[in-house]
Amino acid sequence: DVPKIKGKVFFDGNQNHLLDGGELPIAGRKIRITGPLTAERLSDSSGSFTFNQLPLGTYTVSLISKPDWNQTMPVSPVSYSVSIDTVDDEIETDFGAWSSTAFHFPANRAWNIISVPGVSADMSTDALFPLHVTPAFSFFSTYETAAELSPGVGYWIKLSTGHEVWIAGTLSMADTMDVTPGWNFIGSIGENVPVTSLVDIPP
Fold first, then answer.
1. With left for phi above 0 and alpha for psi between -120 and 50, is residue 68 left, alpha or beta?
2. pTM score, whole prediction
3. Within its chain, how far is the Cα of 185 from the centroid?
4. How do strand 110-114 and strand 155-159 relate by DSSP bridges?
5. Are 150 and 176 contacting, i.e. CB atoms less than 8 angstroms apart?
6. What separation, in Å, do the N-terminal and C-terminal C-alpha atoms of the chain show?
7. Distance CA 129, CA 116 (A)
8. pLDDT, tens digit, for every residue of 107-158?
9. Residues paired with 95 in a beta bridge
10. Per residue in 154-192, pLDDT tens?
11. Which end of the chain is more exposed for a tag (fewer CB within 10 A), N or C?
């Protein structure tokens, strides 16, 4: 498995451009290397990524940007330039990211019932749940696949691993949802909702 380039993507909560103890990993961020070989990886549930069995040479390692996120490590330049000179080289390249509108919630390996409790710049399944292994399925009398997700709607989705899902956007703190007779698959807002606070319109 050597030589290799590896690292971790983390939420830089104090924006000090360092990976401090206790800072949370970010899963599903895309890292790209270019050089003798071009490849991409998604960070896993621990925020880690690895490029194995690389040809010798010089590589640029970059974190692919996302709307509403700022990269905090490295800063200038924003990419790493690293040289693999021997077959035993193992090079660390960590990336910090931060957003003032970021929120996160846990998801399980395999099937999950999820919803998006707010609005993000990119509402595609790939952007919101990059570690998914199936489409997102909504239910409106029958199951339907959804490439773009909507607040207030519930979805089934299968994920490759359990992890914290990170989203940058605006949380919904109130919502109105249309329902039909029979079963409905609805989502929630950005906080716990007591059943007693739900009302019908019209009552």
1. left
2. 0.90
3. 23
4. antiparallel
5. no
6. 64
7. 10
8. 999 999 999 999 999 999 999 999 999 999 999 889 999 999 999 899 999 9
9. 9
10. 999 999 999 999 999 999 888 888 888 888 888 888 888
11. C
